[in-house]
């Protein structure tokens, strides 16, 4: 186990108590009470063992040799710290939670102005196609895509792996030539313009920082290589780097090296670097994909706030539907190289235009189209299956003669925090999950074995053939 934040190691831990092997990235900032309790939930109790093991190791005086480089303060504390200090560090119940970023921090107006000196840019792609030449012949991976991204919007491209999201992003960036179609920034045709002349900032999942360069050096890299922004003297560069590091709340980290940072901090450096040259457009490809769930959640909210404050048009690719629903102003669902649906996230969620979209952005139940409940609902289809979301199923204690309800028996009741997830079985043995807000559930609780009556609303069902859901 390596708790040292220099090493960037992860530990593979298996335990019979866990459903599957657990990988826990260890970082100094993890040893905090809120994270600790979340982590213990995440890994089914393994945390207490882990903590105990680290505690004994720490008490035995072993720690990583941090090398001869200038070292920032890290956990574990120096060996000469007295035992009571050590207990303090490890006592998850008493250590205050240290968030990855201060989401409520006021953004310095002068810094914002410095960085967001241009107006936001509208991006349009028109009938864009991409064909790759592979050993099996030509492969068209983007098939006539048209999309308008309004100036200042945060747009999420979602879809299964291989559906063409990254390829589209790369064509917008100029990293990949288009096979057909046009790319415009504010009505300026940039289709054949080189990447370095498009004024685009990138941030990818793999931090892509130069390990041998300090944080400040990484942020300054773009400025050093492109002197076209009027930032030419070393003093101007230093000022811009300071501003950017302050913006991403890493002012004290300029002299560190990337391996000395946590994943979230590295992504913040990558963001500062992407913003260094005042890009007109920010492109993020799975920016939080490599981060753990707690940090990811925090950075989502923070990046969204920053994006709005900078008013910079941003397109991001994500596999995480929740991330897209939470962050995006506009959501684009890709399937097999085409856009299947686009719109504000709540609209796409509320009114998916196909079984594929419903299945992709929520976690619906699959029912046979001929089952009792579907027939009783009045829904008619020739397709073999039907999707229904767990939050789209009204439930009644008594039979409702005015509504087409179907009786069922409660089989499971699982408290999931803010929601209660229940499973019922209809009399034809078809099962269905539905959820209720905990507050509603407490008002009207359900018990295992209880008879209930559920309504399926035809407008909220989507019929499908298994082929329709394939990536
Ligand atoms: N240089 C290339 N040569 C050949 N095929 C490629 C190349 N780049 C991408 N592809 C193929 O294009 C298809 C789309 O890839 P792309 O990375 O755009 O998908 P994606 O939706 O972003 O998926 P993921 O989320 O997994 O990155 C995939 O089948 C991929 O294998």
TrEMBL record:
<feature type="region of interest" description="Disordered">
    <location>
        <begin position="61"/>
        <end position="96"/>
    </location>
</feature>
<protein>
    <recommendedName>
        <fullName>ABC transporter domain-containing protein</fullName>
    </recommendedName>
</protein>
<dbReference type="Pfam" id="PF08402">
    <property type="entry name" value="TOBE_2"/>
</dbReference>
<dbReference type="Pfam" id="PF00005">
    <property type="entry name" value="ABC_tran"/>
</dbReference>
<dbReference type="InterPro" id="IPR027417">
    <property type="entry name" value="P-loop_NTPase"/>
</dbReference>
<keyword id="KW-0764">Sulfate transport</keyword>
<dbReference type="GO" id="GO:0005524">
    <property type="term" value="F:ATP binding"/>
</dbReference>
<dbReference type="InterPro" id="IPR003439">
    <property type="entry name" value="ABC_transporter-like_ATP-bd"/>
</dbReference>
<keyword id="KW-0067">ATP-binding</keyword>
<dbReference type="InterPro" id="IPR017871">
    <property type="entry name" value="ABC_transporter-like_CS"/>
</dbReference>
<keyword id="KW-0732">Signal</keyword>
<dbReference type="InterPro" id="IPR013611">
    <property type="entry name" value="Transp-assoc_OB_typ2"/>
</dbReference>
<feature type="compositionally biased region" description="Acidic residues">
    <location>
        <begin position="79"/>
        <end position="94"/>
    </location>
</feature>
<feature type="domain" description="ABC transporter">
    <location>
        <begin position="123"/>
        <end position="361"/>
    </location>
</feature>
<keyword id="KW-0813">Transport</keyword>
<dbReference type="InterPro" id="IPR050093">
    <property type="entry name" value="ABC_SmlMolc_Importer"/>
</dbReference>
<dbReference type="InterPro" id="IPR008995">
    <property type="entry name" value="Mo/tungstate-bd_C_term_dom"/>
</dbReference>
<dbReference type="InterPro" id="IPR003593">
    <property type="entry name" value="AAA+_ATPase"/>
</dbReference>
<keyword id="KW-0547">Nucleotide-binding</keyword>
